[in-house]
């Protein structure tokens, strides 16, 4: 090897010194391209434009501006696309986010980007493309509702899986609903299916300002669940499922040895069970093909039963809350625990939607319409 060749090699090594390995989620892109090319190509023009601009930015400030604008536009365009296409498909947003983060990890810009800077840019991409930067209530309605949805999950079983809760988040963000003369504006956020994000306090960081200020009228977390709609009355504290998250990380818990999750490097505080405060009776009047169940079935280390009150659950160890032992149960537990800690009176709780097989737009349409009806009927009780 000549001196010139060595210098070139060292230069290339320096340029790629901060290249970041792909995540498990990003590594699924190749398979997704083969299985659902139409979904993956939904925002090809935007992705290619972003890649071209990213390769040319010359300073971190320019990169920060680029990623901020691009990520927030990704959220807006995904909302517009799902509405205009009437597709009831949340998958384009999920995969576009991953295609974009892959660019940030693999493509070297025209300036020496440090690992900490790249991490910050990836976080900006996440925040903007999940609706976190578009949470202002501007419509002057009588009520305000905050709703969260989840990414698709269990993608190694079905790479083309959709999630009705994500569809709800995209379609309902910024919408105004009304019932009996009462109006409400809905704002939404998309939540990742990753244990690490929960352990680092993503839910607490999102919701603490609302509970501290009592400046919304209801907080509803939504995920895909069972056969009917379940309003999860008694979320449990512990993780107990063996199902992996979207990074193929396991919870570490089991039915016989459930574990407590983390909150910023400490064990998550709080009682073993908490109780929701949704306007159940009003929401059960919703129009739609599915039952709306007030689900109080829980599992402790001793038994599985339908609990009537929190008093009945004292001195018990949670295995599964009424919402299960996965992140759908946990987002509910964390939100209610935080609400109680901050002495907030905002009605809070979780909706489990009926389960779908991979992608079923007609079924998802029915699910979204019934969620909307549930929220509308709730207004009289807020």
Poorly predicted spans: 1-17
Shape: globular
Number of helices: 14
Largest sheet report: 7 strands, mixed
Q: What is the number of beta strands? A: 12
- Mean of residue pLDDT? 94
The structural class is: alpha/beta
Question: Which H/E pattern describes the elements?
Answer: HHHHHHHHEHEEHHEEEEHEEEEHEH
The neighbouring-strand order within the major sheet is 2-3-1-4-12-5-8
Radius of gyration: 22 Å
Proportion of strand residues: 5-15%
Give an account of the 3D structure.
This protein is of the alpha/beta class and 382 residues long. The protein contains 14 helices and twelve strands. It has a seven-stranded mixed β-sheet with strand order 2-3-1-4-12-5-8, sandwiched between helices. Strands 10-9-11 form a three-stranded antiparallel β-sheet, with no helix packed on it. A two-stranded antiparallel ribbon has the order 6-7. Helix 5 runs antiparallel to helix 6 and helix 5 runs parallel beside helix 7. The longest helix has 26 residues. The N terminus is likely disordered.
